[in-house]
Amino acid sequence: ALRPDLVFMLEGWRGGSVAATVERLGVRVRYLRVETAEDVADAVDAVGEALGLSLAAKKADGLRAARASLAAAASLDRTVLMLNGRRPLIAAGPGSWGDTVISLAGARNALSADVVRYPTLDHENVIDLDPYAVVDTSGFEGGPGAVDWSDLHGVPAVRAGRAYALGDPSLLRPGPRFPEAAALLRETLEGR
After folding, report:
1. How far is CA 134 from CA 76, 143, 160, in A?
2. Phi and psi at residue 94, in whole multiples of 5°?
3. Each residue's pLDDT tens digit in the chain (192 positions)?
4. From CA 134, how far away is CA 53, in angstroms rounded?
5. 174, 38 in Cβ contact below 8 A?
6. Backbone phi, then psi, for 79, in 5-degree steps?
7. For the CA atoms of the chain, what is the radius of gyration?
């Protein structure tokens, strides 16, 4: 109904019904991959180029510099289990956005040996992983007292007060706020 000249879609939508409908209507589609910090910078470049926005290249370069700065920071001796959902327990596995943010924060993903991007875990899996910290990104804010952690009461990190609820959307969604997401996670893990 808006009659756009151009539609941006995520790469994963290619071949889907929405993409097919848009393409069938003759609208130009530009697919963007946004799964890593570098992908985000590339997407900012692509959108800027497609729309003739000269400031986009500067923003993309700033994002690349931020990623390099985060990568050069001292690593933390911390393993993190990032939960994207609590019922069921859905975690950020290797290759997920949460995995990217954990790495940029200087920590290690407790699920580094897993092969699934967003595995479903049970209570025993979390106990066996024994992460230094558990971070719930499913939309609540607050520390151990602000969120009901009773479903994970047997996890040593939860009992030690290293369970955090961080509702900032940049922890869940790839985007140009990834430097802030990494800083938030790092500050949380360092106890600031």
Report:
1. 15, 11, 11
2. -60, 135
3. 888 999 999 998 898 999 999 999 999 999 999 989 999 999 999 999 999 998 999 999 999 999 999 988 889 999 999 999 888 999 999 999 999 999 999 999 999 887 788 999 999 999 999 999 999 998 765 544 567 888 898 999 999 999 999 988 899 889 999 999 999 999 999 986
4. 40
5. no
6. -105, 140
7. 19
User: Partners of 120 in the beta sheet?
Assistant: 90
Of the candidates 140, 83, 73, 127, the residue with the CA atom closest to the CA atom of residue 103: 73
Instruction: Please state, in angstroms and as integers, the Cα–Cα distance from residue 42 to each residue in 54, 70, 89, 175, 181, following that order.
Output: 14, 18, 32, 11, 18
Token pair 């990834």 in the structure block, residue? 178
Closest residue by Cα to residue 105 from 168, 189, 192, 177: 189
Residue type, 109: N
The amino acid that residue 166 corresponds to is L
DSSP states along 31-82: EE--SSHHHHHHHHHHHHHHHT-THHHHHHHHHHHHHHHHHHSPPPS-EEEE
Given this model, what pLDDT does residue 86 score?
Answer: 85
